[in-house]
Amino acid sequence: MKIHENETLINRNKMRIEELTIQMEGSLEIKEQWKEQNKIRQEIQQQNETLKLENNNLQNHISNYAQSLKRKIERTGSYGTSIKRKPVST
Description:
single chain, rod-shaped, mainly alpha
């Protein structure tokens, strides 16, 4: 769920970066506006980098958890098949 949210934000930010870049190219003579837009663009780029790192960490956690779960299932499966039930005597 969080990965999907991050990817959505990354895509939205990329579109906003493109918009800001286009706006900046058309208004270089307005120096203060350009500086502010550039600052916002850099902040968005930094946010994207942070989100990408978070996604990588989440993917690693998911992968590690899946591997751990697989090992537990394999151990439980082999352990469960090696135990023989004693017949119940009446």
